[in-house]
Amino acid sequence: MQTRVARLHGMRDLRVETLDYVAPGPGEVQLAMAAGGICGSDLHYYQDGGFGPVRVREPIISGHEASGYVEALGSGVSGLTIGRLVAINPSQPCGKCHYCGIDQPIHCLEMRFMGSAMRLPHENGMFRDRLVVPARQVHAFGTGTTPGEAACAEPLAVCLHAVAQAGDLSDKRVLVTGAGPIGLLTVAAARHAGAAEIVVTDLADAALSRAPAMGASHTINVATNPQGLEPYQADKGVFDVVFDCSAAAPALRSAFAVIKPRGLLVQVGVTGDITIPLNALVGKEISWRGSQRFHGEFADAVALISSRAIDVRPIISHTFPLEQAVEAFEQAGDRSVACKVQITFERQSSR
Length: 351
Known about the structure:
CATH topology of the largest domain: Quinone Oxidoreductase, Chain A, domain 1
Distance between the termini: 5 Å
């Protein structure tokens, strides 16, 4: 049997190809893929051939946030029905290493993450018409959820994990820097967690225009209004929590200026080495905490999307069929208009 795939061979060398796949074995499920979102890491692989020390060293099927319909079940699989819409958790901790043993699977020493070029051989991703995976990796949705919504489970899980780092947000004042898909989903997660006020900053009006629908109280374009955050510096800062989703040095400097003494800065965005205002970190006794990936939050994201307790639809800006994967990646690179760009797949009979 064969399936079309979007396979990256190197910088800006993405090809739609046809590869063989095998029927599901024991404990596995075959999916007719429905929708897949282009993530920032996917975009870095495409535009730059990788990010930081992680480089594309061999052809890799892109994509780690996607949904599909159950098409066939291997032996021993229960709890899933043919035709059910599911999301696929790309995270595969080993369950045996030291960190798995102390209930920190996010830091698994043998982590396999679909669509990642971190290891050799690379872990192939989800941008394909057909996918066979262990049944434990799929999470079913209720009726009424669209494939595009379901494909947002993975990025929402990232943001739920980030918001969990902040503890109780009830009645807290929150700043989110960066209004890309992760920033906007962090806004939604913070609002769901009870934040009283959420201010969002970015450099692009198109990105900020989606923030109110995700739960933002106020938005500031810091490119056209560079003094927009100054009122929030009063009394040594007013924000209880800052989620930095930009990883931009100017945004971080502003964050240190407007966060309260003993406030919490949760670092969600990543970049290379940057200069930080160390005096402010020390003088205000700020806690700065990193956040990466997710574990149990994936199931939480599926439940929240299924019930529309968090409505992810406002972040989906463009969709392209698989045969236009290159156009989809090019569109995703244009932040002046794009937010979450998704690829859609064929549901015709497997062949």
